Amino acid sequence: MKVTGKSKYAFLILALALLCTISNTYAQQRQAPSVDEIVANIKEDLKLTDEQVVKITPIVRNQIQQMQVIIEQAQEKVRGQMLALEQNTETKLAQCLTPEQMAKFKNKQQGSQSSQAANTNGKSINATRSGK
Known about the structure:
The protein is mainly α. The chain has one domain. The protein is built from four helices and no strands. The chain starts with a helix and ends in a 12-residue tail after the last helix.
């Protein structure tokens, strides 16, 4: 089978879409430990007193909250970069594909994005656990 420039681009786009889907699925399945779980581990490892536990709990909670903000900012930056890459690639593909092929490609992309949106359902990683 002869590999053309068009098929290389199409394969690249499909590979990127698959990678995004896998990464998103993996990220959703991971659950960070709650504040209480982290503090319990520290208490056990360091043999903390109850007074020390009371003092470190808000420190750990604050760290987790700040980390979540950093993670969300990084995710937004990555989303922007991915969108720019996708648009750039789509522009290049449009130069290689016929209008009919491009329309079909866009329809497949929209279907893929709809599936990803349904899978994520607007959830952010660990959002339910970080506030404990």
